[in-house]
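Help needed: design a sequence for this.
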């Protein structure tokens, strides 16, 4: 993937890749990384000894999730290649529709994987919002916000491809799967974020 600095400069350039799909994967990886940070701050501490098995599980799951999300940045860019080529196929080519449709399906696959990946780690954010170190509670709130953004961004990259599909039934099926994950994830992330934000804003709670 190269350096973060290089990725951001490429993202800011006129190149079509990386784009929104890669950006959503990176945002998701940042959110999950904050979860890992919070868990690492609690790991091995006497105060959190009763939660150590859960912390170990969080660290293992978060690490694997970060690796997958970073890999999705590369995969998303790779799958844009066939779609970009499909756009250039002459409209009178008898194979164009099938090639274009398959390229659209491929382009949807990574955003769908990002949605699933984030869906599968939201319980980690929720757990850390209750059992994680209080000094890192704002970071857990940022994780919830980032993961919501990653899911909304990934869904957007699903919809732009399904909108162009000839097979509307298949497009609707993909959209429906995306919307279920998005709706559930956004609700949960919002709940976590609001709970943490309310606690941090509560000046009276300190007296």
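Sure. Designed sequence:
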């Amino acid at each position: 993937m190269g350096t973060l600095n290089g990725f951001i400069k490429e993202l800011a350039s006129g190149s079509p890749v990386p784009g929104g799909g890669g950006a959503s994967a990176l945002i998701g990886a940042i959110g999950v990384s904050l979860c890992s940070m919070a868990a690492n701050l609690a790991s091995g501490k006497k105060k959190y000894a009763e939660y150590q098995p859960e912390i170990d599980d969080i660290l293992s799951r978060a690490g694997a999730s970060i690796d997958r999300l970073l890999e999705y940045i590369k995969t998303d860019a790779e799958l844009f290649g066939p779609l970009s080529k499909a756009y250039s196929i002459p409209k009178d080519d008898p194979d164009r529709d099938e090639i274009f449709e398959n390229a659209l399906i491929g382009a949807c696959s990574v955003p769908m994987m990002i949605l699933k990946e984030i869906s599968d780690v939201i319980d980690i954010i929720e757990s850390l919002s209750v059992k994680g170190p209080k000094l890192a509670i704002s970071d857990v709130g940022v994780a919830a916000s980032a993961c919501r953004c990653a899911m909304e961004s990934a869904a957007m990259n699903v919809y732009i491809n399904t909108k162009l599909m000839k097979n509307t039934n298949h497009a609707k099926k993909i959209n429906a799967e995306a919307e279920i994950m998005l709706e559930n994830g956004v609700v949960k992330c919002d709940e976590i974020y609001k709970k943490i934000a309310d606690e941090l804003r509560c000046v009276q709670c300190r007296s």
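Helices lie at 4-12, 20-42, 52-87, 96-131, 137-162, 168-201.
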